[in-house]
# Entry
Amino acid sequence: MSLPAGLLDGLLALLLVILAVRALIAPTLYQCAVAFISFGLTLSLAWARLAAPDVALAEAAIGAGLLGVLLINSLRDFSRGGDDASAIFGKDLPTALFSRTVISCGTLAFAAVLGMAMFHMPEGGGLTALTEASLPHSGVEHPVTAVLLNYRSYDTWLEIGVLVVAMLAIFCAGGFEGFRRPEQGPDSDPVIESLARLLAPLMVMVAGYLLWLGKAYPGGAFQAGVVLAAAGIILQLAGWQIIENLSTWAWKWGLGIGFFFFLALAVSFMPLGLGFFEYPEAWAGPLILVVEVLATLSIGLTLTCFFVYFNGMGASESRRRTR
Amino acid sequence: MEWGRAKAGAVRGRTMETHFIYMAVSSALFSVGMAGVFLCRHFFKKIIATKIVGAGVFLLLVSIAERDADTFADPVPHAMVITGIVVAVSAAAFALALARRIRIETSRASFEDEEAAE
# Structure
């Protein structure tokens, strides 16, 4: 390992640990959220160093970007009546101090044991050779896409399902009054609106590019879906209310189509003697592309809904307070 | 494909130390996160702490993938981690929504501060 590369890895490692600690002990919640977003972005640099550009893209887009938006959005409720992040220290200090010491020592010992265990891990060899051997039959050229949408498509299918379930759960936690109020839009800021006009078409184009790129290079349905969701969130912030103005029919189909098309595809070749989630080799490439396009649409819509319902929670609360 | 191979060639030269550094970091992150889950009282911080624990686990998986690199880094852990990131973010978003609802309904921000409720 060359010296600059080692220096970079060392600095990234140090920065990751510092930011993680900072995200937990910062004096205000806003600083916690910002430290956590920086942590996510630093982590995506670390993944780029570990030769995992797909993971880096996913982390930067959803781990730091989307979750960061949700964290800062929810600060509206938590910082009401004082930004009481200092509440980590209880009033009964002696016992708290004792338990804090015990837990800190315990986790330090645990970290040491864990670190030692990691260096004694057996060399399994991994599944690289097997993946590479089957790559010509998978219909795509990029190994991670082949794993996600061919070898282990079961995981990816259920992951799309998890997203929709989480979206519904957020909807339920937020209550129904926070949603579907197309008549009372927020006053749109002219700056955000012109920014949205500029950025949203560009982001849709980037999403399409990432989607197409997934066949042979890092990229794919999830990254593209998150970029699409970012475009949706920006439009939402500019007061376009795309989700609220969507017809119920389009909303339902948009959310479900990724999941259900994937399922239909999984069973449709079973009469021909193929297994669950097994595609005919000649059609695998085009079929994967169609699945990815529909999954991207569903993921984009689902994640935009995440934000809309989240935002609606605060809005319904402020309405209740003014009442 | 060409890109993957070129990258893997670069990987082989420095694979020994790089993944060792990040394995050590992953154990540190896991422990920091665990300590945060126990020690932080505020819901917001507890949720961030669970995300940090998850980041430690993902970092270990990707380090192992890099250790097992042949012509390219092992893609199976990569795919698992991408799936894992999305699921972890969904779970964190749901947890945040619940915490927010608790805050709105009871004005509590942690499990302990019942006396702080108005």
